[in-house]
Amino acid sequence: MSLSFKNITILFSIFCGFLLFLINVIELNSNYKNIKTPYITKSSQNNLITKNISNKPQTETDDLTENSFKNLKKPESKEKIILVKKGQTFLSILDNFNFDNKKKFAIINAINPIYDLRELKVNQKIIFLIDKNENVEKIIIELNFNTNLEADLRSDIKIVKKELETFSEINSQEYVISNSLYADGINNNIPNQILIKLIQLFSFDLDFQRDIQKDTKVSISYEKIFVKNKSDYALGDIEYAKIIIKNNTLEYFKFLTDDGFIDYFNRQGKNVKKSILKTPIDGARISSSFGMRKHPISGFNKMHKGVDFAAPIGTPVYAGGNGVIEMVGVNGGYGKYIRIRHNNEYKTAYAHLSAYRKGISKGVRVNQGEVIGYVGSTGRSTGPHLHYEIIYQNKKVNPLKLKLPSGKILTGDELARFEKNYKMILANHLNNLFE
Ligand SMILES: [Zn+2]
Fold first, then answer.
1. Integer Cα distance of 380 and 375 in angstroms
2. Residue 70: helix, strand or coil by DSSP?
3. How many C-beta atoms lie closer than 10 Å to residue 110's C-beta?
4. In which band, very low, low, confident or very high, does the pLDDT at 5 lie, cut at 50, 70 and 90?
5. What DSSP string runs through 305-340?
6. How far is the CA of 24 from the centre of ligand 1 (A)?
7. Most-buried pick from 91, 221, 227, 373 (CB within 10 A)?
8. φ and ψ of 410, to 5 deg
9. Residue 109 to residues 90, 101, 102, 105, 116, Cα–Cα distance (Å)
10. d(CA 335, CA 379)
11. What is the whole-number distance in angstroms between the Cα of residue 63 and the centre of ligand 1?
């Protein structure tokens, strides 16, 4: 009795974790467009201390007071901060200041070619700097985390976009999995965006269902990017990730390659990315493996030439690798079906979908990890799941057993540079953890 209660509790918490994860994936995808990775001006070596701030919500913003620009501005000028309210237009905001109509429209006409003022969002911050004669001398519109638009009104109206100086801090954490990589990460205050990146990173080498067991240890360093005088921040890259599973330690280091890509390598300088994902879906459970089985609908013994991942209807399905969509449409018992051609040798297929992502059609290029469709139960299917096939030289192969070609291996000077780099990352990581 007590055992089954325990099982139910575990199942329930896994389910909750998965729900949380899904919500965050959706949130991440919708936020992603708005977050440009800011240029980093100070590197991780100068890291300040990080452990106390990891609880801060990411969008937290200090209310600037009238004094906060005191040091930067002449003492006679003051500032007024407006947070855009729902339905408020820029024109109606200008009504709060002593502009005549001509001036108002001159300001709007000057800003609009550089920033479309109809794109102002609720709670976007606009700062008005006012001189001692109560004239607005400058309007600063915060465009995003590290970009401001400044309208200087002192003589002719001058508009500039200003990139703000950023600096980064490295946060390091270590935790033991009792539930799932994701749920325990959240419990250890690791931001969901970082956890999603972590899962994507590990997904090349890990089968989450099979490999991750209770008491698996995870170690991670990631970057937080700040702007001077602002308390909100953006999350940067994972710098370091380690997971210790049975007989195996996976360890990844971030590295900027000679050709300018940020990528991840192990200590030997081998890229961790594989050409095709073994699991093109997050948090799902394998409900049927590749091999002989009794077909649940026909009842015949039949070779199951794919892997089934049970997941709720609507769960996003990712492209297993970079490639071109070869087929989209209903395909007999497969129901709604997508097939991607990755190169001359590899293809992947996705069946029983509920829907295709908008824009997915024959001939379209997709990148690994991009959403292509959503889990469903169309065709000959007994319940919501993704049927995933990897096709190698026109033969369906077992995705979980496939030895996939790996990516770049660093050599020569690049390898030497990487080695220097990873030792620094590791030293920082350990230093952060144990100080
Ligand atoms: Zn199947």
1. 14
2. coil
3. 15
4. low
5. -SEEEE--TT-EEE-SSSEEEEEEEE-GGG-EEEEE
6. 27
7. 221
8. -75, 145
9. 12, 12, 11, 6, 10
10. 4
11. 54
Least confident of 9-18, 90-99, 147-156: 9-18
* Cβ pair 83, 123 in contact under 8 A: yes
Q: Angle at CA 427, nearest 5°, toward 424 and 428?
A: 85
Name the packing angle between helices 192-202 and 2-32 (round to 10°).
100
Ligand 1 centroid to residue 304 C-alpha, Å = 6
From ligand 1's centre to the CA of 308, what distance in Å?
Answer: 5
Is the dihedral angle over the CA atoms 43, 48, 49, 52 positive or is it negative? negative
The DSSP output letter for 121 is -
Answer for the pair 241, 219: CB distance below 8 angstroms, yes or no. yes
CA–CA dist 376, 373 (Å, integer): 9
Pairing of β 125-130 and β 136-144: antiparallel
223 Cα to the center of ligand 1, angstroms = 40
Distance 385 CA to ligand 1 centre (A): 8
How many angstroms separate the alpha carbon of residue 139 from the centre of ligand 1?
59
For the record, the structure tokens of 305 come out as 């030439």
The Å distance, Cα 388 to ligand 1 centre, comes to 7
DSSP 52: G
End-to-end CA distance of the chain: 45
Kindly state the tokens that stand for 27.
């949130």
C-alpha span between 345 and 343 (Å, rounded): 5
pLDDT tens string 256-298: 888 777 789 999 998 877 678 888 887 667 777 777 766 656 6
15 C-alpha to ligand 1 centroid (Å): 22
CA 312 to centroid of chain Cα atoms = 21
Ligand 1 centroid to Cα of residue 421, in Å, is: 44
CA 299 to centroid of ligand 1, rounded, Å: 14
Q: What DSSP letter does each residue of 210-251 carry, written as one string?
A: HH--TT-EEEEEEEEEEETT---EEEEEEEEEEEEETTEEEE
Give the residue from 422, 35, 29, 27 showing the smallest Cα distance to 236. 35
